[in-house]
Amino acid sequence: MTLTLQIVQFVLIISILVILHEMGHFFPAKYFKTKVEKFYLFFDVKFSLFKKKIGDTEYGIGWLPLGGYVKIAGMIDESMDTEQMKQEPQPWEFRSKPAWQRLIIMTGGVIVNFLLAWVIYTMLLFSNGDTYIPSDSLKYGIVVDSIGEQLGLKTGDQILMVDDKKTRKFNEAVLDIILGDEVTVNRDGREITVPLSDEGKETVFATQGKNFLGYRSKAIIAKVQPNSVAEKAGLMPGDEIKGVNGVDTQYWDEFRSKIGASANQELDISVLRNGTTKHLGLTVPDEGIIGIELDLTDLRVTDNYSFLEAIPAGYKRTIQVLTDQIRQFKVIFNTKTGAYKQVKGPIGIVELMSPTWDWVYFLNFMAMFSVWLAFLNILPIPALDGGHVMFLLYEMISGRKPSEKVLETGQIIGFVILMGLMAVVFGNDIWNIIKKFL
């Protein structure tokens, strides 16, 4: 059931984004009286699941869920309809329109993707605010595992800067560390700059970064699961765990480590409840989970926004997401980090979807993915929107149209590049699935 829900969420997000992206091409084309022959969600290779012609346009749903397209008359695109291009140009064709109109038609999809992300972030900030854990004022510093230590970090460090830039939010600091060259921390009262090695990053990516860096917090219970080991032992929300078997346990990571290493053992848990210390006994089950959730209210901060304040804040968030995505190419193209092995395709992305229906997560993911699609589509690769824009800008600057032969060759080269990238991405997905069974 969980996998089904994740697939439904992913397909729904892709469908919405593809339809809106293609509308970004469709409506300007219609406005400039350019004939649109097809408007498809997904690709209809050989056949389609549904199609209906309304006016000059055939609307349909293909069977191959890798995107979608609009086929505009008089345009060299992935359909490679060269027969049409051999005919005399007609007034309703793309090639007959002024360059500035063609530029608007080709950038329409990317603009819609960017605006959609901006609107989503604006509405989320207005309705929910921005809740985060500040990285520059963590009360108890960070907590790292062996992988974090390989990067040069230590539990208890307080992050001051990454690459001479202060980071306000902890989640941003984590990404900055993965993408950065050095991190400055406060360690035992001393300011230390730690170089971030490619070898350390390779280990982070090889393990998909699980738990290499977290934030330290007091072991205060927020919630106790019904019928759990913790509930049966008498633990309650608001309890602060102070020790295990007589050994002081100040922080959550210390308590979690002790529980994880004590399967089938009886433990004496000392908790502070309403100013009084109580001792409770429990036996840790095989899986090492006792059924409690951590209270982070003393670490979290929420910034609230009025509607007018949320508009520029939503724009800033959109630009930040775009900037972070561009920066990721720095480590992806650095073969020493091995980050290219973790690039995810549709199969891998499904695993990132929430296992439960969460509208905030759904909308955040949609906004992030919309920015990602905008960025990918504007890359100057023939067969993408950015490739068409590249040729149009050349035409507008030089005053000369590229020949149809050049456009056709570029389309073929771009298609080969995209197929190669897709092979790598799907190969990574399949290999990561195989590794789970090895």
UniProtKB/TrEMBL annotation:
A GO biological-process term: proteolysis
SUPFAM superfamilies reported for this sequence: PDZ domain-like (SSF50156)
Q: Kindly give the membrane topology term recorded for this protein.
A: Multi-pass membrane protein
EC assignment: 3.4.24.-
What does the UniProt keyword field contain? Answer: Hydrolase, Membrane, Metal-binding, Metalloprotease, Protease, Transmembrane, Transmembrane helix, Zinc
The protein's required cofactors: Zn(2+)
One GO cellular component term, please give it.
Answer: membrane
Q: In what residue span(s) does the PDZ domain sit?
A: 191-250
Q: What is its main location?
A: membrane
* A GO term, aspect molecular function: metal ion binding
Q: Name one Pfam family in it.
A: Peptidase_M50
UniProt protein name? Zinc metalloprotease
Superkingdom, natural source = Bacteria
Q: Where in the cell is it found?
A: Membrane
Family assignment from sequence similarity:
Belongs to the peptidase M50B family.
Residue ranges annotated as transmembrane are 6-27, 103-126, 359-392, 412-434
Q: State the InterPro entries in the record.
A: PDZ, PDZ_6, PDZ_sf, Pept_M50_Zn, Peptidase_M50
| NCBIfam families xrefs | RIP metalloprotease RseP
